[in-house]
Design a protein that fits this description.
The radius of gyration is 15 Å and the shape is globular. The chain has one domain (2-187): Rossmann fold. The strands form three sheets. It has a six-stranded mixed sheet with strand order 2-1-5-6-10-9, with helices on both faces. The protein has helices spanning 13-25, 64-69, 80-84, 95-104, 140-145, 170-187, and strands at 2-6, 29-33, 42-45, 52-55, 72-75, 110-114, 132-133, 149-150, 155-158, 161-164. 31% of the residues lie in helices and 21% in strands. By secondary structure, the chain is α/β, with parallel strands linked by helices.
Length: 188
C-alpha cells in the first residue's frame, strides 16, 4: 500500500511525524507530494517548530494511473491547503484542487482530509456536496457553503472520504485510515 500526503509550508510537524512512524509500522509507503513550480525540489517550514522538510515529488506530474496506485491521499492540517489554493489564473481552479478532484473521481482511492484541509476544495464545492465531514471549528461555514454535512465528531467516515477535526486528532485519523485500508485489502 502507498499513501500520498500533500505538503507545503506551515505544516503541523507532530502530525507528519506521526504519519511517518505509524504508516511505516503498517508497511505502508508514504510519499509527500507538492507543487514544485518547475523546481526539482523545494523546502518547506513547519508551523510549530519551524522544522524543514524537503520534497521532490510533484502532484502535477502524477498521471491518472499514478493516482490510482495510491491507496489513500491525505490533505493534512495546518495551512498546507490554504497555501496550495494559489492559482495564477483566477478563472481556473488551483492545481492542487484539480489534483484532489481527480483523486475523488477514483472510488478506490481513499481521501483523507483533516482540519483546514477542506479549504483546498472550496473552489470545487460540488466535490464535497452531500458528504458527511468534520473539520476544525473555524471551517464550519466553509463546509456548509460547500454543501458538506457537518458531523460533530473527531473523525468521520463517508464511504471513501475520511475527515478529521484537527491535527490534535491525527492519531485517531491515521488509525481510521489504516483500519479502512486494511479492511479493503482483506475484502479484495
Amino acid at each position: 500500500m502507498k499513501v500520498a500526503v500533500l505538503l507545503e509550508s506551515d505544516f503541523y510537524e507532530p502530525e507528519l511525524f506521526y504519519y511517518e512512524r505509524r504508516f511505516e509500522e503498517e508497511n505502508i509507503e508514504l510519499d509527500f507530494v507538492t507543487r514544485l513550480w518547475g523546481n526539482s525540489e523545494l523546502s518547506f517550514r513547519g508551523h510549530e517548530y519551524g522544522l524543514e522538510r524537503r520534497c521532490s515529488k510533484s502532484f502535477e506530474d502524477l498521471s491518472d494511473d499514478d493516482i490510482r496506485d495510491y491507496s489513500a491521499i491525505i490533505v493534512p492540517s495546518g495551512m498546507v491547503a490554504d497555501r496550495l489554493r494559489y492559482t495564477e489564473d483566477p478563472k481556473i481552479a488551483p492545481p492542487a484542487t484539480r489534483f484532489l478532484a481527480r483523486a475523488f473521481s477514483y472510488p478506490s482511492v481513499l481521501k483523507g482530509i483533516i482540519c483546514h484541509g477542506a479549504l483546498l476544495m472550496t473552489p470545487m464545492p460540488w466535490v464535497l456536496r452531500g458528504r458527511k465531514m468534520t473539520a476544525h471549528n473555524n471551517l464550519l461555514g466553509d463546509l456548509r457553503n460547500m454543501g458538506a454535512v457537518y458531523v460533530d465528531e473527531d473523525v468521520v467516515v463517508d464511504r471513501n472520504l475520511i475527515s478529521g477535526r484537527s491535527g490534535a486528532q491525527c492519531q485517531k485519523f491515521a488509525h481510521t485510515i489504516i483500519e479502512h485500508l486494511q479492511s479493503n485489502t482483506r475484502n479484495h
